[in-house]
Amino acid sequence: MAKKRPQTRATRPQPTDGEIPVVGAREPCPCGSGRRYKACHGRAAAHAVTELVHRPFEGLPGECDWVALRELVPAATVELPLKDGLPEGVPSVTLATVLPMAWPALRRDDGSVLLGLQNDTASGDISRDLADTLQRALTAEPGTPVQARRAPADGPRLQDLLDAEGTFEPVVHSGFEFWIPDTENATPEVTASLERANAAAIPTVKLAGVGAAYWCETPEKNHLRWVMPHPEEQLLDALARLHAAGRSSLGEGTRLVGSFRAHGLTVPVWDLPSGVGADDVEKPAAGFAERLAAALASDAPLSPEERRARGGLTNRQVTLS
Prior knowledge:
Layout: H1 41-50, H2 63-71, E1 76-79, E2 93-96, E3 105-107, E4 113-116, H3 126-138, E5 144-146, H4 158-161, E6 171-172, H5 188-200, E7 204-206, E8 213-217, E9 222-226, H6 232-244, E10 255-262, E11 265-272, H7 278-297, H8 304-315, E12 317-319
Parallel strand pairs: 2-4, 10-12
Antiparallel strand pairs: 1-2, 1-6, 3-4, 3-5, 7-8, 8-9, 9-11, 10-11
């Protein structure tokens, strides 16, 4: 049998990764490799889109409050300063927990932008998805909502668009009336969405004396949910030290019951009696912050009682994201 001759291909210009356009998964890759896109450059693109970013808000001012508004707070707004300033015709950019009809963003009639935070995202990087929505909202026609889409894998993140030196000061609302500056001209769909959202909103108050702590009222008992920036293992050790010593409560009838894990941060949760309001926990929360700082500074090994307390806290931990 005659020997097979080695296969050769004509040389063709090989574009760089940045020049590879996105095509159908089963189509030939535009790089000229002869392989399908999904098995060639599409593999890296798909990985970039689906890879989970565990701390999507890291590096932004107010990371803990970003997490709280994403997962815990029903109705709140924050003015967002842009790195390059506001474009012409855009008087303001405001982050909102939720928008009517669950829109990702809205360009209002006056040109201002509302960006929704509590929306499903198409990728594993909430920051990139929100940045893509924000960019499209800035150029949308006034009076139109921005629809959801899959953000480009190499698109900017919020950290690239927002002013890193700016402030992040949430304003918590009792309802969603901030959606509609002119209620008389609202569409029936938006009015119905407003009524549903207001009916479902849990009364929530942000504490003034400590960072990213939110009191909320429920029918049976109230709660304090406090997003903390400390590394999880170090924080759980510190909470265990305080819990074992009987110093983890916020006063009579209150109890540290566990924690959430959300977007790379830990959120301790206290049960409060139904008669305990937000003002009532301001001073106890400030005192707890001092006790926690001292416990965080300790590097002594946990005692058997502290290890048991830590195990109990870990067993009652719930992951939100």
